[in-house]
Design goal:
Pfam families: Beta-lactamase. This protein is an alpha+beta fold. The chain is about 30% helix and about 25% strand. It has an eight-stranded antiparallel β-sheet with strand order 8-7-16-15-14-13-12-11, with helices on both faces. It has a six-stranded mixed β-sheet with strand order 2-1-6-5-4-3, sandwiched between helices. Strands 9-10 form a two-stranded antiparallel ribbon.
Amino acid sequence: MTKQIFFSVAFLVLSIFNTIAQTDKNSDLFIELKKQDSIFFERGFNQCDLDYLESHITEDLKFYHDQSGFQDKNAFFENTQKYICSNSEQKPIRIVDTNSLEVFPLFNNGKIYGAIQIGVHHFYLRENGKEDVWTSTAKFTHIWILKNEIWKLSEVLSYDHHDPVVENPENDIEKLLKDNNVPALGIGIIENGKLTKVEVSGTLDKQTTAPYNTIFKVASLTKPIVALTTLKLIDKGLLDLDEPLFKYWIDPDIKNDERHKELTPRLILTHQTGFPNWRYMTESNKLAFQFDPDTKYQYSGEGFEYLRKAIENKLGKSIEELAEELLFTPLEMTDTRFWWDSGMDETRYAQNFNEKGEKIVTEKYYEANAAANLLTTVEDYGKFLEHLINGAGISKNLYQEIIQHQVTLKEYDFFGLGWEILAGFNDDEFALLHTGKDPGVSTLAIWFPKSKNGYLIFLNGDNVDKIYEELLTKRLYLGNELWNKR
């Protein structure tokens, strides 16, 4: 009876395919369903977030498997707990072949109510301290239903299970991480303006599997957060891009230098203050101008801290309060913070390691720094990048200031407001990017305004060059061109 049900449903699905067209892979629907597949299986299957799993399947879920029979929602949930999530020491992992995905929309009176998604997925067995073992490959057909603007999985067909035939390149990254003494990798992919993939591989500390919502320290990727917070204040009329900041803050070290009157948000966001990166890195250990403001570029964390203090003094609010109000709450960035506050879940923190794979003692910070030390997840920062790519919620004129060539660094290399700008890509693409680097921390955020593509890379180790080379040259949008520009 089960086989009859399975083949009846399969026949029905194939019949539907004959009457509706596959959705274009650049369409909003395709990208949205690709995102749903990525997050649903990463959180629900790989990371065993059972609350998330249960809230994203329908009450009448039907699951058809060519080897283990038919399951309703209760049986599916019980089997997931029993066979998928009961033993963290030997954990089945599912990875989709993204190139195999196809999506077919379902309409009712011209209104979309669901979609059919088909593709190929691979299954692995993960054991602590060992490389993942590829166990099988199968085809799948999913029926997603759109209920109250939430996509839920309604029917699943998992079939044509067979043993591995060739090595699957999707999971080579686990070996690459171990070979280079970098425990964890977080990666987020944005396609056509939507966050479609959030994936965390490896371990927190060389032992504990890194969860989907691993918290990474992202170093200088703090600066784009503060930059956009500043621009939103400007957009609201609470600050001006070219407003002198000395009315609100003068650092005691430069109070006798009249050049402090020239400092503005624009000069700070474009790194034209004349400040060193950090005063503690200078012989005097004091803040001083190394050249006149607005004459050339020099990267400076001191500048961002100067901006933070001026804004806080002017508005009577901390940078944490402003970022929470303007970014974190609206974008639901619930796992992002400037320092180790009471909400920080240390059990999810990606510990940091040096080039030799030796653990670096975690330094906890208890006050905000506008230039460094942000704690966040791939999904949270992916939401931020998605927001930026889609206009950042600010006026078009101010948005253009972000991507305008404010300063020329060299040929095809510029700086805008808070972001480096690289030109000269194929198809007239250009990229805005920022990196972060601290002991045991290496991060990258990049976005392409023309195509609305982008990605994030978070790593918790120092020996990262081969990992970046693999990701950029083989897996990511225009990554080979980016790698050759380094």
